[in-house]
Design brief:
heterodimer; A: 373 residues; alpha/beta; Rossmann fold; Cytochrome-c3 Hydrogenase, Chain A, domain 2; 5-stranded parallel β-sheet; two-stranded antiparallel ribbon; 9 strands; B: 218 residues; mainly alpha; Fumarate Reductase Cytochrome B subunit; 7 helices; 2 strands; 64% helix; elongated; binds protoporphyrin IX containing FE
Chain lengths: 373, 218
Amino acid sequence: MDKTKEEQLDNQQNKPLKEPTIWEEKGISRRDFIKFCTAMSAALALPVTFAPKIAQALDEIKRPTLVWLEFQDCAGNTEALLRATTPDVATLILDILSLDYHETIMAAAGHQAEEALNGVLRDQKGKYICVVEGSIPLRDDGIYCCIGGKSALSIAREVCGNAFATIAVGTCASYGGIPAAAPNPTGAVGVKDAVPGATVINLPGCPLNPDNLTATIVHYLTFGKLPETDSHGRPLFAYGKRIHDACERRSHFDAGQYVEIWGDSAHRNGHCLYKMGCKGPETYHNCPTQRYNMKTSWPVASGHGCVGCSEPNFWDTMSPFYKRLPNVPGFGIESTADKIGAGLAVATAAALTAHGVISAVKKDKDTDEKMEN
Amino acid sequence: MGKLVSKYIWESPVRITHWVNFLSILTLSATGIYIGSPKTLALTPSQYIMGWVRFVHFVAAYAFTISVLSRIYWAFAGNEYANWRSLVPYLYKEGRRNMKETFLFYTFFKSKPPHSLGHNAMAGTAYLSVFLLYIVMIFTGFALYSEHAPHSLVRTLFGWQFSLFSNQGMRLTHHCVMWLLLVFAIQHVYSAWLMEVTEKNGVISSIFGGYKSAPTKE
Ligand code: HEM
């Protein structure tokens, strides 16, 4: 270990703990805390040497304010967050951020609740973080989702527009998601499309993985800025790699071992779900490594193909979920591209054979005629 | 009828790219069909059957791409028979007349196709569509290929197509165009045979050796 690192660690350990840190108050041991910081540096794809830096930043937290808005959603992302079985550091991160507004879990209701939000807007302009869950309807002046008499769009404009940054959690808030699926009756869009001026980072997924939310917030607390994103506004640390390339069933794909029917022996043996319509080859998300529900599992591990839920418009563009390719538009439901293609090839061969026969007959006739002349 | 002489029509780049295309399209179709609906052939996960099939698909894809690009270059650098103008006969008068007569021949209204040394006019038109289909295959193919490397140069060059096609639409297009090319291939072999037996100008051997027989007056 080199000198500087040693010093860093020394500083950490020998720091006179005059007053208990916020973590100790919450009953989290120093050991667990450092373990968490190391896990976070891994989640953020940073070298482990960043763990002390993260620890330091989290020790010195200045309780940034967080408001959580819900629009056209199913509260699935809130659920994902609350599902943590034992409240660990990850959930407490959200506790220590002062969560001033969250309709599903706040005690206040009605005007009192709205007052809490107004308070944040008044006092913390440009400093608070806004989390949005659910899509925002634009059609018919946005009347399809109203809270406290205001449309989702006007709330988003005001709250996201004045935030330090907005984190869109789940595919609906990121890209419109399921409410935006064709024919999109409410004209639903994601936050960035509804409020183009806002600073938005997207954490799509159905639901998002709460670990990625924690890591994004930890990144912000440590470095004072949002993590780097891809062209869909998703942080690269979580959405930079393809599911297919980190999948535990990948060796079966490369070998050529495929599930053919649900429940067949290949399925029971954990073989590749490619032929069952798995969209892992076209989806970018860290599910295989980060997993869900306290790292218990993720869809492909439990035997269900990926449906590409973290990709824009997945409901329309990744379907059919249980088949590799969509049907050819304009042909019957059961016609696959291969049936149509093979049919066309056979028809062509038949037509040309007929053409050949006619040519031959005709040629004989022509020659006959010539001979007669 | 005057005497026949051998005339050099297809220069070597035309013949070589023709056969590289032939071999690579066969390989790409065979491997592509397997990639599209693979059968379980492996007994253990340490085998690499799909891995090799995809590898062969990508190597053939590069051969095909280089061949198509070379042929496009030769459409500007080669002789008059290789020239791009022969793919757009409808742009000039003689071509239009040729097209009409060839069409009448194919539909049995005339017993002889018009004489032409290079592509006949209908064939030239078909080849233009085929070249466009090649380009579609190359573009969609490389876009699919770039999925494994979302931050690569290939992705920058070809990834913009994902905003035109949906991801699934791209796969479906890549898959269906294969069938169109196979249908073309069947038709192509048939037409070559038909011209061989009616025109007796050695069109089939010409793609091997480059020479066609032509009346002396030419
Ligand atoms: C005439 C030329 C070609 C033919 C007939 C052909 C055929 C096919 C077919 C049938 C598939 C399966 C599609 C599916 O069902 O999803 C496929 C997949 C693919 N092809 Fe091609 N292809 C051709 C050229 C190319 C080229 C030039 C490339 C460029 C690299 C390419 C790259 C790919 C890739 C990346 C896949 C997907 C493989 C995977 O997902 O593992 N192909 N091809």
